[in-house]
Amino acid sequence: MVNVRFILVLVITAIPHALVAEDLGEMWGTAQEEEKYYPIVNIPIPPEVPMRPGSFEILPDGRLAVGTRRGDIYFIKGAFQSPPEPRYHLFASGQDEIFGLAWKDGAMTTTQFGEVTRIADVDGDGIADRYDTLSNNWGYAEGHEFAFGSKHDPEGNIWVALGLSGSYHSRNLFRGWAVKVTPDGRMIPVCSGLRSPGGVGPNAQGVMFCIESQGPWNGCCSLKHLKQGAFLGHPASYNWYPFVPGMDAPAVEPDSPSRLQVEKKRVKELVPPVVRFPYIRMGRSIAGFRLNQTGGKFGPFENQIFLGDYTLSIILRVTTEQVNGVWQGACYPFREGLSTGIMHVEFSPKGQLIVGGFTTNRQWPVRGTEPFAIQRIDWSGVVPFEIREINIRKDGFLVTFTKPVDRDIASGTEAYIVTTYTHNYAAGYGSPEVDHTTPKVIRAVPSADGLSVMVHLDKTTEGHIHDFDLAGMVSRDGEHLLHTKAYYTVNEIPDH
Predict the structure, then answer these.
(1) What are phi and psi of 248, to 5 degrees?
(2) Domains present along the chain, CATH in parentheses
(3) Looking at the predicted structure, is the pLDDT value of residue 373 above 70?
């Protein structure tokens, strides 16, 4: 298909008044201290450029590519300089809400509302002149049916997460599913049960995940494993199983209200969220994410996932691990104080984190005050004292830090405050935190080098977020933690 141009008319869905009016909670209050380690740099946008960033890609020549909400693709030279001296070049236009960009073999592949498209500059004049539809095997009818796409996986596939119709329904083919689009344009359904997904991508082990927003059947935002044949929680998309040869629908639907740990025993295909993000404190509308494999250029968080939240204008970190064949992990605060709603993030060749997004007229609140922005988070070269990672053990958790801890303080059980809770697994919108427990810290054993502490608990609860508050922790050099909180989602407990 050559030079396809079209205009999409969106039907805007109503947002419940309670959500519109809801405040955005307190900020972490760490922005000034974060600036010492990870300063924010603005990348100027000329007034004549209608920029609403929705996706990023790095071109082979080092330029930054930006896909926008209105369907344009810009190439930017000079975004990674200090200070930035960006020069914008319009490469392509005529698409709709580009929430996925991937460059391969001299062409750009985009994931937009209704299709995955390959775009190329055949005559070499710097302007796209060939638009090929790879796949449009799903429809859409309204503005909530977003499509988010990945980079190319090792086989050249693009993974696409498809949002439902208005949160509660799957009125068009494969809405609420994750699918793969092959290099030759075949669409392969992967798993059902999504509600309103965001970014799609791998962890350090190459396993594919997507972000899910809080809402019906989702008590809070979460990171979900796109496992072949899985059901990921929202039953509205059961209706498309007859269109998937060799994949049967789950024999039962989940009960409402219930708990994920209960329902995964009834619904054998149900794969629980990998990481759940406590509402407001750790995100409300998480969108795009990217794996940090900068080789240490971005500080002590190599092989961790960095995520942007649209509503709260913040950046988070995630670590993942597999326990008893099931993925789970933890989330951590990273950076607040960004200018607008964050839709996507990308690492530059220099190891900088590019972040960007916009606000909309769709009644979704945003903490950042700018209508759109592209910003850059640089590492100053100074390592902050942080919780680097939390990993589960049979009788507690191994907490690893970026700097050695004060052994006397770290050996005292009073340095660790741990509480747990879960959410209702239910058809209603979101959930309060329920089923609270307070496990007792039995003992804490620092490692010889002081970089980790084994925290032994009297009880670890499956299906619960384990909320760590380490405000009393101090480094060997007398530093206090930059961020004192971390949240581990327990799906499984190891038996050794």
Answers:
(1) -90, 145
(2) 17-377 (2.120.10.30), 387-489 (2.60.40.1220)
(3) yes
